[in-house]
Design goal:
This protein is an alpha/beta fold and 133 residues long. 43% of the residues lie in helices and 20% in strands. The protein has a five-stranded parallel sheet with strand order 2-1-3-4-7, with helices on both faces.
Length: 133
Protein backbone atom coordinates (compact mmCIF):
# COMPACT_ATOMS: atom_id res chain seq x y z
CA UNK A 1 0.00 0.00 0.00
CA UNK A 2 1.15 3.52 -0.75
CA UNK A 3 2.23 5.74 2.13
CA UNK A 4 2.58 9.47 2.81
CA UNK A 5 5.07 11.12 5.17
CA UNK A 6 3.37 13.88 7.19
CA UNK A 7 6.11 16.46 7.59
CA UNK A 8 5.80 20.14 8.39
CA UNK A 9 4.65 22.25 11.29
CA UNK A 10 4.51 20.59 14.70
CA UNK A 11 4.20 22.85 17.75
CA UNK A 12 0.72 21.49 18.57
CA UNK A 13 -0.68 22.47 15.16
CA UNK A 14 -3.79 20.38 14.41
CA UNK A 15 -3.38 19.98 10.64
CA UNK A 16 -2.40 16.29 10.91
CA UNK A 17 -5.60 15.46 12.79
CA UNK A 18 -7.53 17.23 10.01
CA UNK A 19 -5.90 15.51 7.02
CA UNK A 20 -5.53 11.94 8.31
CA UNK A 21 -9.26 11.12 7.97
CA UNK A 22 -9.16 12.46 4.38
CA UNK A 23 -6.37 10.10 3.28
CA UNK A 24 -7.11 6.87 1.45
CA UNK A 25 -3.54 5.62 1.87
CA UNK A 26 -1.31 4.78 4.81
CA UNK A 27 0.67 7.55 6.50
CA UNK A 28 3.63 8.13 8.78
CA UNK A 29 3.16 10.76 11.48
CA UNK A 30 6.59 11.77 12.83
CA UNK A 31 5.19 13.59 15.88
CA UNK A 32 6.09 11.79 19.10
CA UNK A 33 6.03 12.78 22.75
CA UNK A 34 9.73 12.09 23.38
CA UNK A 35 11.98 12.99 20.44
CA UNK A 36 14.95 10.59 20.57
CA UNK A 37 17.79 9.62 18.24
CA UNK A 38 15.83 6.47 17.37
CA UNK A 39 12.82 8.62 16.42
CA UNK A 40 15.04 10.73 14.16
CA UNK A 41 16.36 7.60 12.47
CA UNK A 42 12.84 6.27 11.88
CA UNK A 43 11.77 9.65 10.50
CA UNK A 44 14.72 9.75 8.07
CA UNK A 45 13.83 6.25 6.86
CA UNK A 46 10.15 7.08 6.38
CA UNK A 47 10.93 10.35 4.61
CA UNK A 48 13.22 8.48 2.20
CA UNK A 49 10.84 5.58 1.51
CA UNK A 50 7.28 6.96 1.57
CA UNK A 51 5.55 7.40 -1.78
CA UNK A 52 4.68 11.01 -0.96
CA UNK A 53 6.34 13.55 1.31
CA UNK A 54 3.72 16.05 2.42
CA UNK A 55 4.90 19.17 4.19
CA UNK A 56 2.21 21.41 5.66
CA UNK A 57 3.32 24.79 6.94
CA UNK A 58 1.04 26.66 9.36
CA UNK A 59 1.52 29.87 11.40
CA UNK A 60 2.33 27.71 14.44
CA UNK A 61 5.71 27.02 12.82
CA UNK A 62 8.64 27.91 15.08
CA UNK A 63 11.62 26.30 13.38
CA UNK A 64 12.57 26.35 9.71
CA UNK A 65 13.82 22.80 9.17
CA UNK A 66 10.59 21.73 7.41
CA UNK A 67 11.21 24.45 4.83
CA UNK A 68 14.69 23.04 4.20
CA UNK A 69 13.25 19.51 3.94
CA UNK A 70 10.58 20.40 1.39
CA UNK A 71 13.04 22.30 -0.81
CA UNK A 72 15.55 19.44 -0.52
CA UNK A 73 12.91 16.86 -1.43
CA UNK A 74 11.62 18.98 -4.32
CA UNK A 75 15.16 18.94 -5.72
CA UNK A 76 15.85 15.25 -5.15
CA UNK A 77 12.41 13.69 -5.75
CA UNK A 78 9.91 16.27 -7.01
CA UNK A 79 7.40 13.62 -8.07
CA UNK A 80 6.92 12.70 -4.37
CA UNK A 81 6.95 16.22 -2.91
CA UNK A 82 3.77 18.00 -1.84
CA UNK A 83 3.71 21.37 -0.04
CA UNK A 84 0.65 22.85 1.66
CA UNK A 85 0.75 26.44 2.87
CA UNK A 86 -1.99 27.45 5.28
CA UNK A 87 -1.93 31.20 5.87
CA UNK A 88 -4.58 31.07 8.61
CA UNK A 89 -4.68 28.11 10.99
CA UNK A 90 -5.58 27.51 14.64
CA UNK A 91 -6.46 31.19 15.16
CA UNK A 92 -3.06 32.36 13.93
CA UNK A 93 -2.05 33.98 10.66
CA UNK A 94 1.21 34.56 8.79
CA UNK A 95 1.86 38.28 8.35
CA UNK A 96 2.35 39.77 4.88
CA UNK A 97 6.14 39.50 4.94
CA UNK A 98 6.09 35.89 6.13
CA UNK A 99 3.49 34.99 3.51
CA UNK A 100 5.53 36.61 0.70
CA UNK A 101 8.57 34.62 1.80
CA UNK A 102 6.58 31.37 1.94
CA UNK A 103 5.18 32.12 -1.51
CA UNK A 104 8.75 32.25 -2.78
CA UNK A 105 9.41 28.85 -1.19
CA UNK A 106 6.27 27.58 -2.96
CA UNK A 107 7.66 28.88 -6.26
CA UNK A 108 10.93 27.01 -5.65
CA UNK A 109 9.08 23.78 -4.93
CA UNK A 110 6.77 24.23 -7.93
CA UNK A 111 9.67 25.12 -10.27
CA UNK A 112 11.49 21.98 -9.14
CA UNK A 113 8.45 19.89 -10.09
CA UNK A 114 6.78 19.49 -6.70
CA UNK A 115 3.09 20.14 -6.06
CA UNK A 116 1.85 23.11 -4.03
CA UNK A 117 -1.60 23.55 -2.50
CA UNK A 118 -3.31 26.10 -0.25
CA UNK A 119 -5.68 23.65 1.43
CA UNK A 120 -5.50 20.25 3.08
CA UNK A 121 -8.47 19.04 1.03
CA UNK A 122 -6.74 19.82 -2.27
CA UNK A 123 -3.55 18.05 -1.13
CA UNK A 124 -5.47 14.99 0.11
CA UNK A 125 -7.40 14.83 -3.18
CA UNK A 126 -4.14 14.97 -5.13
CA UNK A 127 -2.52 12.23 -3.02
CA UNK A 128 -5.62 10.02 -3.11
CA UNK A 129 -5.98 10.37 -6.88
CA UNK A 130 -2.29 9.80 -7.65
CA UNK A 131 -1.52 6.75 -5.53
CA UNK A 132 -1.77 4.09 -8.26
CA UNK A 133 1.65 4.59 -9.80
Amino acid sequence: MKKVFLGGTCNESTWREEIIPMLKIDYFNPVVEDWTEECMEIERYERATCDFCLYTITPQMKGVYSIAEVVDDSNKSPERTVLVLLRDWDKKCFDTGEWKSLSQVADLVRNNGGKVFLSLTAAADYINNNNNN
